Known about the structure:
- There is one protein chain.
- By secondary structure, this protein is α+β, with helices and mostly antiparallel strands.
- It has a single domain (4-170), classed as Hotdog Thioesterase (Thiol Ester Dehydrase, Chain A, Roll).
- Helices cover 29% and strands 29% of the residues.
- It is built from 5 helices and 6 strands, in the order H-E-H-H-E-E-E-E-E-H-H.
- Strands 1, 2, 3, 4, 5 and 6 form a 6-stranded antiparallel beta sheet that branches.
- The longest helix has 18 residues, at 45-62.
- The radius of gyration is 18 Å and the shape is globular.
- The chain starts with a helix and ends in a 17-residue tail after the last helix.
- The relative contact order is 0.16.
- The mean pLDDT is 93.
- It comes from Roseovarius ramblicola.
Amino acid sequence: MYPVIRLLWQLWRHRNDPPLPLTGTHASQHYCLPWDIDLWRELNNGRTLTLYDLGRIPLARRVGLIAALRRQRWGLAIAGASVRYRRRVRMFDRIEMRSRLLSWDDRFVYLEQSMWRRDGECASHILYRAAVTGKDGIVPPGDVLDALGQPELAAPPLPGWARAWIEADAMRPWPPMPDEGARPAQE
């Protein structure tokens, strides 16, 4: 189940935080709860992706994106992600989540997030490709910048590792796994 109450708590908890610049970093504290764990008593990898929402949505509010989305009747969609899991997060562990916008191109925005344990170790790191969407499809980031009142803002250079992921992802076939040679379904 989606952690709606936890999301509302994060939005309430950070309601008076000062606005951030578009590429500012939002930091938030979270706990790994019993319903977040897998069979090995650690944070489930799928739940990790859901918990990252708890940092991205307050970040979007603090940079003014949520208000712009509402005014324009736009949405926000994740179009790709690459995650690295490096350290375990166990039940009741407290983590600090850091969320920020890296850059954008002519179609997408790129965000990064990380989870940090109390011992200072980074548990996971994710790179997202996201799109603002409207009734006609993807809204160009230039139009989003206009709606944010920052039309002159230039995209920061993407780090090499992020550019490499974008290039590698562009090489993946679509649709994936064609059915050539697939086994027929058993009746």
